[in-house]
Amino acid sequence: MPKGVSLAALALLAAVGWTVKLVLAEPLNRVSRRLADWLFPEARPLTYRLARFVLALTTCLAPHRRTELQLLPLYMQGASTAILNRFHPSLKHCALNWGDLAAAAAELEVDERGDRQAKALRLVSPLLREAISMHLRNAFARLGFAGWYCVVRPVAVMLFVIVVCVAQVINAFFFPFVLLYEYLSRRATAMLMSAVIRRLPPEMPAEERHFWTLAMQRDQHVPRRHVLTRRLAVEVWIRRRLPLPDRELVAERLRLKASPAARRDRK
User: Fold this and answer.
1) Are 192 and 232 in contact (CB under 8 A)?
2) First-last CA distance in the chain
3) From the CB of residue 104, how many other CB atoms can be counted at a distance below 10 Å?
């Protein structure tokens, strides 16, 4: 291409560019001025626009309910008392009232129209933080409920079943030894009571002998609390003496009634 043609094309391109610049200069100037006025208004600082944006975002994000995880008492079917005091998971929903949003919007409106240069972002930022933290608390409550219901409860029930099964196996294994122990205990008690009856003094009155013989026989059938056996075992079998306890106490503990002859003697 000849050199002159190149220079002419460059000159034509420069003239067209200059013409376009002159034509678009005024519209671009107006657009930039409007954008600057919108971002940095003279009467309303930028912080008010950001505060209104934060307030609108808070209004959209604010939850209407608060969710809490509660661990209620666990009852079996037909039971009147709870098995565990805090075990059964439940979700509690409480309605929330975001009246602070309307109050913050009204305060922003008053500050924006007046001459006071308030810190608008400091006014609305705690509301946004509270809305986000409330959403996080609700999410954690739901996650905790799911964890309790899907993980903790099945594991606890499984452990309870395992413990019950192991206890039953151990009980079945030691059941013969328990029967043998109870048999030996009854035999030892009977032998002790027979020895005590034989050691009663010969000079003891008939009514007194009858009372102690009846008390020894009754004591053998008192379940899991031998009143006389505990008192006389060491004294009779080891120390070889017979210290009879208080008759009134023994009669009250064994619920024995005195014979008619004894009642006549007391009168």
Assistant:
1) yes
2) 155
3) 22
